[in-house]
Write a structure and sequence with these properties.
The protein has 631 residues and is an alpha+beta fold. The protein is 38% helix and 15% strand.
């Protein structure tokens, strides 16, 4: 065992030596579709959001191919500006490029959670398209399989022609040290056969040391694997007339003394050997760890079979849970008491929710006196980043306790009232929250079997984690299409809902369908735009936000009244003093919201259409916010 510990610390030391760079090189891990970043950002997904700025211009290298062989085609694929792409590369917008011509692609890079990304979209063309081929073939390694899987609500086996994917492209912003050293831009470059640090530093006219540091290399001549990306630090905007940027097919190699070339090759062999040794050690440690974890799981399973851990739930609940995901934990009530300080008022987050630490994990514990089978069943069937995760359950004297993932920033409703958050002034943050909600609903409506309607979407049921990413919570009233289409609910099952969010067809005829969630989303989007509650008081009377906005939009002077609807927190000043005019942006978002609030369900947008429109708006906002951030 001591030998294993020594190996472990040697590996940790090796990894620690690589943490001084701006980013970490992914190695071949980027070619896998099964990486995890539960313990922190992983370069196998995208580049970490650890630069000096959260928004910046960046550049990518794309090699022209038969389908994408013009400025227009490449800009459409990467959601970049065709005019800027043509200017930087000194080409015409529609002219056909030779095969494998290196094209510099300008993009807007921004933080999205813990990673930088440039946002693009891709319409699936073929039955043979997969997350892996789209990331590595279509986008030439400028995205990753894992990032695509996370960014889209579709299962890997469910994607097909005609579907539109959100594609996060690999980019990054310079660190403070890089900026201090004159680095203004980072360019994402796809490694090809025989590429090495010495040659690339020559090609791009940068020092080998800065190139190594930008990618977390501690050694002089690290191994670079084809089909992986590295970052090139640049002191100025790249352009096609630079002698260092050329087609990798026709380009001559830089003249290098034979001895240096030989040393470089020796370094590669040594690197491969070292990498192989490291891989073997990692595998050994992984097997040991897996054996240990498996033993613990088997031990827990035996306890469950004996009933030692299940005694706190009634038999009918246990029968249902038997069909659920086995990761669901059954907690002892004493554990919950210890986790919450005996349900101390200091641990209370709301009337029925407490904060606690269970088995080393921060959780939110919700107490419920009603039957929880519906909510437990749904949450164990679904799995999406934008839906709250359920960790475990417990029952005591008819009171049920559900342990959920902890959301540090509370609900959207609370967040909009907290003026201390700097992100509250960001249009991009609010649009990202709206996109998260839309993605979660789109998954429920179209990618679960059976499909579900949430039925109680409101800003109090949308929770925000530490990165201000939104997750839909409270599935108490959710309804499935199991057994037939969504239909009318009987009067005995009419749910109280939340006033101000309920669609007309449900209020009048109790009709249930996905479009009632779309209606409620439209109200939440208005809250994000205006900062007002779904029902607010004006002139001593309650006013529905949806009706007030629709009334304003129906007026002849609607465009002139938009400014009065915008949340004052979003009306920020430009660095030179004047208020930035966001009325055009607000108008686009309000029109989107109104399209969700149509009285007839058939006239409302679908969540897929909402996502498409929001993504286009988000791209424009990121460009705008970046331009103000660099003034």
């Amino acid at each position: 065992m001591n030998e294993y510990l020594i190996c472990f610390f040697l590996i940790v030391g090796h990894l620690a030596s690589r943490l001084n760079g701006q980013q970490q090189y992914s190695g071949n891990s980027v070619l896998s579709c099964n990486n995890t970043d539960k313990k922190g950002p992983s370069p196998a997904f995208l580049y970490s959001c650890n630069g000096e700025k959260h928004f910046c211009p960046a550049f990518l290298i794309f090699r022209s191919q038969s389908t994408y062989n013009s400025a227009t085609a490449i800009s459409n694929l990467t959601s970049s500006s065709a005019v800027e792409l043509a200017r930087i590369n000194n080409i015409s917008i529609s002219g056909v490029l030779p095969q494998s011509r290196e094209v510099i692609v300008p993009v807007n890079c921004s933080c999205s959670g813990q990673y930088y990304q440039a946002n693009a979209s891709y319409l699936i063309q073929s039955d043979y398209d997969t997350y892996y081929t789209i990331a590595n073939n279509t986008y030439q390694g400028l995205s990753t399989c894992d990032a695509l899987k996370r960014e889209n609500p579709y299962d890997a086996l469910d994607i097909g022609p005609g579907m539109t994917l959100r594609v996060p492209l690999r980019c990054a912003c310079p660190s403070k040290n890089q900026t201090r050293n004159g680095i203004k831009f980072l360019l994402t470059y796809l490694v090809t056969w025989n590429d090495n640090i010495a040659d690339l530093s020559y090609r791009f006219n940068v020092t080998a040391r800065s190139l190594a540091d930008a990618n977390g290399f501690s050694e002089k001549d690290p191994v670079l694997y084809p089909f992986t990306t590295i970052l090139i630090p640049l002191s100025g905007e790249p352009f096609s007339s630079q002698p260092t940027v050329y087609s990798s097919v026709d380009a001559p190699s830089p003249s290098t003394p034979p001895r240096r070339r030989k040393e470089s090759q020796i370094g590669i062999y040594i690197g491969i050997a070292a990498g192989s040794s490291f891989g073997i050690l990692s595998c050994v440690l992984f097997l040991i760890f897996s054996h240990f974890v498996r033993g613990k799981i088997n031990e827990a399973s035996l306890k469950n079979k004996d009933g030692n851990k299940m005694q706190n739930l009634p038999a009918n609940i246990l029968d249902k849970i038997a069909d659920f995901d086995q990761e669901l934990k059954i907690y002892e009530f004493e554990e919950l008491e210890a986790a919450t300080g005996n349900f101390s008022p200091q641990k209370k987050l709301s009337d029925s929710v407490y904060r606690g630490v269970l088995r080393g994990k921060l959780v939110a514990i919700k107490r419920m006196s009603k039957d929880v089978r519906r909510e437990v069943k749904i949450l164990q069937k679904i799995n999406h980043f934008n839906l709250i995760s359920l960790y475990g359950v417990c029952e005591r004297n008819g009171v049920y306790h559900l342990a959920y993932e902890f959301m540090e920033n509370g609900s959207v409703k609370q967040w909009l009232k907290e003026k201390g958050f700097p992100e509250i002034q960001s249009w991009n943050t609010r649009i990202r929250i709206a996109l998260d909600i839309a993605n979660g609903l789109d998954y429920l409506h179209n990618f679960t079997a059976p499909a579900y309607v949430h039925k109680d979407i409101n800003s109090g049921n949308i929770l925000l984690n530490g990165d201000l990413r939104a997750k839909i919570a409270n599935f108490s009233f959710a309804k499935s299409s199991e057994g037939g289409e969504f239909s009318n609910s009987s009067s005995t099952t009419f749910f109280p809902g939340t006033k101000g969010y309920m669609a007309p067809e449900y209020l009048e005829d109790q009709k249930v369908g996905p479009k009632i969630d779309v209606y409620a989303f439209g109200v939440v989007l208005l809250e994000l735009i205006t900062g007002r509650d779904a029902i607010f008081v004006e002139g001593g009377q309650d006013v529905l936000l949806s009706e007030a906005v629709i009334s304003v939009m129906a007026a002849a002077d609607a465009e002139y009244a938009i400014g009065d609807l915008i949340d004052p927190c979003l009306q920020v000043k430009h660095p030179i003093g004047y208020i930035i005019d966001h009325s055009e942006l607000a108008l686009r978002l309000i029109k989107l919201s109104v399209a969700c609030l149509a009285r007839e369900p058939s006239e409302r947008l679908t969540m897929a259409e909402v996502i498409s429109r929001l993504m286009k708006i988000q791209l424009d906002v990121q460009k705008t916010e970046y331009s103000f951030s660099i003034v």
